[in-house]
Amino acid sequence: MDEYGQGRTMPHNEDAEKAVLGAILLNANALQTAMESCVPSDFYHTGHRALFSAFIAYSESQPLKTLDLVSVIEFLRERGQLEQCGGVAYISSLTESVSTSASVGVHAQIIHALSLRRQFIQMANEFSIAGFDQSQEIVKLIDDSEARLSSLAQGTGEANKDVSVGGYVMKALETLRDRMDGKDSGNLETGFDRLDQLTDGGFHPTDFIIIAARPSIGKTAFATSIIQNMIVAPRSYRVAFFSLEMSGIQVSQRLISCVSKVPLKTIRNASFSDQKDRNFNHVLMAAQKLYDTNLFILDKPNMKLSEIRATSRRLRREQHVQIIFIDYIGLIDAEMPATSKKFEQVTEISKALKSLARELEIPIVVLCQVTRDAEGDKNEPQLNNLRDSGAIEQDADMVMFLHRARKWSSDALEKDRNGDMTLQRTKVIVAKQRNGETGEFFVGFKPSTASFEMLADDYQRG
């Protein structure tokens, strides 16, 4: 009877385990083949598990000696593990289970697959027990369960897949050839040329990206401008936006204003003469253009971290989203005790979102505020100005700051795409980029549409 099998024996294959161990005793090279597919904990029988571990320990401590029956038995005797592994007679009988080591790889894969099945059964049992415990919040329970299942799914391949540098080198060369051939690199272009140049083609999969600024500079506007560039043709990316500060309607109004170039105030107040109004027609066309995109807006305020993770996994799995934006980190509920300090909560959120980006293999862009030290017009924000936690700086693969003076005179404005002097020149500071260069460039903020665009003139000039 087994603890998790409800009276049934847990899935295993004793013959496959004996065949792998026997093959190793016949041919020491079979150990490396077996280790590519399974690890000691994959063996069901305690003695088999201990013997496989001993084979690995022997090969590491005695690299110049042959792994044979006599040597292994003596090694086990010295370590006091001989009886644990079944004794001399049992170990000697293992070679009778196999005549050749040729099939050791296949048998090792069987052992690993059955180990995963046992782990799945154990998890299912634990999920069932936790489900009856009403003291646990169900959303967090689901999030934890999904994370554990995702971790188990990542172990469905070979045990040591791509651990050696050779596997990664081949992947790097494959990516290089694809880019030389003009194939999709997997990076997501932002629509801002200078930013795409600095990031070697846009935002990269698994990157945790921070966009930070003091209040009213335009963090959300910059994020929605990037989103607008991403979701419409020719890019047509699949994007998710967790808007914890604004409602979905407000986000949609901003996007419509950004695409149509009709002032946001006009759209909010419905300041059109009639349905034949030219601006109203522009709004309708923009709405149709946005309707056909793949943007998913989640606008629940004070969303819990577990909800964000669970929803992100679902959107990745069902909608195949390619990038996630979150506005903003300070509004996420870390689900920690009320006595927890703010920096502890932000640290937990930051680490969780970085881990989520790696798990889903997509970029996650998070908005963040800066401390009051960067409030002055002349004080450009720096990495140590990220509010509430130094963990954000540590976890982020890329950190961007927006900076400009609060007060503007009309003669300081820049030209927009139509040649009109409407843009407030704003500096974008790429203060950290784990896999690329840092630098700065300028974009133009258009207050009427709450959007950013590239400047008509040389936007890199100081």
Order of helices and strands: HHHHHHHHHEHEHHHEHEHEHEEEEE
The end-to-end distance, rounded to whole angstroms, is 75 Å
Fraction in helix: 40-55%
Report strand %.
5-15%
Rg, rounded, reads 29 Å
Structural class: alpha/beta
Report the major sheet. Answer: 10 strands, mixed
**Shape, principal axes of CA atoms:** elongated
What's the overall average pLDDT, rounded?
A: 84
Number of discrete helical segments: 16
Low-confidence stretches: 458-462
β-strand number: 10
Catalytic activity: ATP + H2O = ADP + phosphate + H(+)
Pfam families: DnaB, DnaB_C
EC number: 5.6.2.3
Protein name: DNA 5'-3' helicase
Written overview of the protein:
The protein is of the alpha/beta class and 462 residues long. Helix content is 44%, strand content 13%. Strands 1, 2, 3, 4, 5, 6, 7, 8, 9 and 10 form a 10-stranded mixed β-sheet that branches. Helix 10 (219-231) packs across helix 11. Belongs to the helicase family. DnaB subfamily.
Brief summary of the model shown:
This protein has 462 residues and is an alpha/beta fold. Helices cover 44% and strands 13% of the residues.
Relevant terms:
462 residues; 16 helices; disordered C terminus; ATP-binding; DNA_helicase_N/primase_C; alpha/beta; ten-stranded mixed beta sheet
Write the layout of secondary structure elements.
Blueprint: H1 14-26, H2 30-35, H3 46-61, H4 69-79, H5 87-93, H6 104-132, H7 138-153, H8 165-180, H9 193-198, E1 208-213, H10 219-231, E2 238-243, H11 248-260, H12 264-269, H13 278-291, E3 294-298, H14 305-319, E4 323-327, H15 342-360, E5 364-369, H16 391-395, E6 398-403, E7 414-415, E8 421-433, E9 439-446, E10 451-453
Parallel strand pairs: 1-5, 1-6, 2-3, 2-4, 4-5
Antiparallel strand pairs: 6-8, 7-8, 8-9, 9-10
Catalytic activity: ATP + H2O = ADP + phosphate + H(+)
GO cellular component, one term: primosome complex
Family: Belongs to the helicase family. DnaB subfamily.
